[in-house]
Amino acid sequence: MRQSPYLPNRPLKVAVLGSSGAVGSELLKILEQRDFPISELVLLSSERSEGKKIIWKDEELVTKKTTKEEFKNLDLVLASAGGSISKKWLSTIIDQNALLIDNSSAFRLDKNVPLIVPEVNGSEVLNHDGVIANPNCTTILLTLVLAPLNKLSTIQRVIVSTYQSVSGAGQLAMEELKLLTEQYLQGNPQKSEVLPYSLAFNLFLHNSPMLSNNYCEEEMKMVNETRKILNIADLKLSATCVRVPVLRAHSESINIEFADEVEPKDALEELKKSPGIEVIEDYKNNRFPMPNDVMGRDNVAVGRLRTDISQSHGLELWLCGDQIRKGAALNAVQIAELLIPKK
C-alpha cells in the first residue's frame, strides 16, 4: 500500500493516457468543467496521434508519444487507451508513486483492485495499491440504479438487455456511423470498416468475443463487475448486449426480482433521492427516457417503473445514460475527486 491512499493536497501533475480518443477527449472537458486541481496536464497518445494540438483552458497543448520519460513526477494517470497499454505502463506509474485510474478491463476483476462507482461503493476507493479500475459503461449505469433499489429489498435476480451506442466502439466508429447513414440515405449503402456490420438503420448483437458459455465478453463483464461492485457474489444476472445506431448514449431494459414485493412508487421515490439519477416518467403522454435526454449530460435518466406481471416480487424499468460521460470519463474523474483530501 502507498504511504497514503489519498492524492497529494496540492494542484496535481496529471496525465491523460489515450488523450486523443473519444473518452480521452471527454476527460479533458470534464477536468476543465469540474475545475479539477491541476498544476500540469500531460497528454499521452500513440505514435500515430503524436503532435496533435488540443486547446485546454485556453492553452494549446500538444499530445506526446507515450514513453517512460513522460511519467516522471506524475501524481495521477487517467487511462483510456486499452488494457494492453495500461498493463504495459502500470509498473512505471507505480514506480513514480502515482495513481492509475484505468478505464480498460485489465484490472477490473483483480481482487486487489477496487472497482468503483462513487455513488455506489465510493467508500472502497481508499483500498487501492496504486491502481483503481473504472467499470464497464453498461455496468456503471446498471449498478447506479440497482444499488438504491437493493435497499428496499434484497435483489435476487436481474435480467438486462442493453441498447449500446456506437461511442462504445470509439471515435472512428462514431464518425463511420454518420458517414454510412449519409451514404444509405443517398441510396449508396456501404459496408462498415470499423465495426463488423454497418449500423446505418441497423443493429446487431454486441461484437465482443464469444465465450464458451455462448455469452459474449461484454455480457459477462456486466455479470462479473456488477457482482463485485454490489458485493453480491452469487447475484443471478443475465445480460443480452446489442449495438444500436445511436451516437453516444446507452439504454438498458432491466427486470429485477426482489426477495419481497417492491411497489413501483417506493422504488421511484428511492431513485429520485439517489445521486446521479433523474426520473423521466409521464405515463399519460408515453414519455420516458431517451438517448437525446442524456447525451452530453451527467445524470442517468430512469423511468417506466412497473410491476412485472409475470412473477411476484418483480419490477421492470428503463434507463438511458451518456456512455462517454457517466459511462466512462465522468466516473473516472469522480473517483479521483474522492481521493482529494478534504479541507
From TrEMBL:
GO biological processes: 'de novo' L-methionine biosynthetic process; diaminopimelate biosynthetic process; isoleucine biosynthetic process; lysine biosynthetic process via diaminopimelate; threonine biosynthetic process
Protein name stated in the entry: Aspartate-semialdehyde dehydrogenase
The EC number(s) this enzyme carries: 1.2.1.11
Residues bound to NADP(+): S20, G21, A22, V23, R48, S49, S167, G168, Q323
Keywords associated with the record: Amino-acid biosynthesis, Diaminopimelate biosynthesis, Lysine biosynthesis, Methionine biosynthesis, NADP, Oxidoreductase, Threonine biosynthesis
Superkingdom as given in the UniProt entry: Bacteria
UniProt-listed HAMAP family: ASADH
Binding residues for phosphate: R108
UniProt xrefs under SUPFAM superfamilies: Glyceraldehyde-3-phosphate dehydrogenase-like, C-terminal domain, NAD(P)-binding Rossmann-fold domains
Active site (catalytic residues): C137, H250
Catalytic reaction equation(s): L-aspartate 4-semialdehyde + phosphate + NADP(+) = 4-phospho-L-aspartate + NADPH + H(+)
Pfam family, any one: Semialdhyde_dh
Gene3D superfamilies xrefs: Dihydrodipicolinate Reductase, domain 2, NAD(P)-binding Rossmann-like Domain
Sample GO molecular function, one term: aspartate-semialdehyde dehydrogenase activity
Family, similarity comment: Belongs to the aspartate-semialdehyde dehydrogenase family.
Xref: InterPro entries: Asp_semialdehyde_DH (IPR012080), Asp_semialdehyde_DH_beta (IPR005986), NAD(P)-bd_dom_sf (IPR036291), Semialdehyde_DH_NAD-bd (IPR000534), Semialdhyde_DH_dimer_dom (IPR012280)
Classification via SMART domains: Semialdhyde_dh (SM00859)
Quaternary data: Homodimer.
Organism, scientific name: Prochlorococcus marinus (strain MIT 9301)
The encoding gene: asd
Binding site for substrate: Q164, E217, R243
Domain Semialdehyde dehydrogenase NAD-binding: 13-128
Pathway: Amino-acid biosynthesis; L-methionine biosynthesis via de novo pathway; L-homoserine from L-aspartate: step 2/3; Amino-acid biosynthesis; L-lysine biosynthesis via DAP pathway; (S)-tetrahydrodipicolinate from L-aspartate: step 2/4; Amino-acid biosynthesis; L-threonine biosynthesis; L-threonine from L-aspartate: step 2/5
Free-text function comment from the UniProt entry: Catalyzes the NADPH-dependent formation of L-aspartate-semialdehyde (L-ASA) by the reductive dephosphorylation of L-aspartyl-4-phosphate.
Keyword Magnesium carried by entry: no
